[in-house]
Design goal:
5 helices; 107 residues; elongated; mainly alpha; two-stranded antiparallel sheet; Multidrug-efflux Transporter Regulator, Chain: A, Domain 2
Length: 107
């Protein structure tokens, strides 16, 4: 089972105040922790890693929040060309499967 962290734990691990983490969540939409039944934020390992990377870019590399968001976006999401190639490959596979199924039904 994946580890879950409270905002207090994340705050302590990162060495920043909880309000800073909440601000980062507003500015970087792919950091979106789920809420527990009691309404408290619950962070996954992936979100913790994204927050660590964001802090590094902001505090050590001196990126702006916009620059850091863009950098993380490029690091975590495939480029448009990669995505287009992957979609074309899946489409080709689906068409091949469809042709095979059509051939079976006509025999």
């Amino acid at each position: 089972m994946a580890t879950r962290y409270s905002i207090g734990e994340v705050s302590e691990l990162l060495g920043v105040k909880p309000h800073v983490i909440r601000y980062w969540e507003e500015e970087v939409p792919f950091i979106a922790p789920k809420k527990s039944k009691s309404g408290r934020r619950v962070y996954t390992d992936r979100e913790l890693q994204l927050l660590i990377r964001l802090k590094h870019l902001l505090y050590e590399k001196r990126y702006t929040i916009d620059g850091a968001r863009e950098r993380i976006w490029k690091e975590t999401c495939p480029s448009r060309a990669d995505l287009t190639a992957r979609i074309a490959a899946v489409r080709s596979d689906l068409l091949s499967a469809w042709e095979k199924l059509k051939g079976r039904n006509h025999k």
